[in-house]
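User: Hi! I'm working on a homework problem where we have to compare a predicted structure to a textbook description. Could you give me the structure for the chain below?
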Amino acid sequence: MQTGGLSDKRDRFCREYLADFNATQAATRAGYSPKTANQQGARLLAVVNVAARLAELQANVAKRLEITADDITSCWWKTATAEPNELISYRIGACRHCHNADHAYQWRDEAELTEAECLFDAKYVNVKAETQPMRPNEDGGFGYNSTRPPHPDCTRCDGLGQGFPVIADTTQIGKQGRLLYNGIKITSQGTEGQMADRQKALEHVARQLGLMKDRVDYGITDPLAALLRDIAANGSAAPIRTAAADDEGDFG
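Assistant: Happy to help. Predicted structure tokens:
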């Protein structure tokens, strides 16, 4: 059977290619031999009828989704220019010694001091008093708040304070923040926020504007866009072949 001037096998390749834009994998899934899929995928993308069918299928998808190339480019641009601090920020606050007259260690509250005392006693229960380090005490007082600004005269941090990461409440982020947000990863080291690649989004926009040359790598990038642009700009000198004649070159 023929679809758009192509054999069923080639039409299947077109549909599979649009699934992940990987020509080698698309050729394999379409029924070509895995041993020659890399060469077949590259060769098929250079066939005018295949390129035309791919463009037709892409247009059909865009029509169903009611989306245009401008919509996609706009989304990439918003992602590239989104403010990452809306999701994850690294802040500088007061150290434990900043806001005390003598710059002694300051506790949040009495409960924190009591916990520190208990841990100290458990650790040094069998150690002679004269060889123990200083036991936690309340000389520095209470009320420590890491979000307060560093004290410029602190003798412990030299007014530089201490840094700490902050992950935003993702249910409260704005539209551009949601474009960047790719989820949360919890590891043995703690919680890690995942963000979209802003540099990659910017490269998409630059490529769409013709500011970057497409790198043709049939297993990774999309050579179809470059081929269609070339055909639109210069036309094609290749003779139109029938699907049967085209398929004579397919192997595997």
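For your comparison, note the following. The chain has two domains: 2-67+211-247, 90-167. The longest helix spans residues 48-65. Good luck with the assignment!
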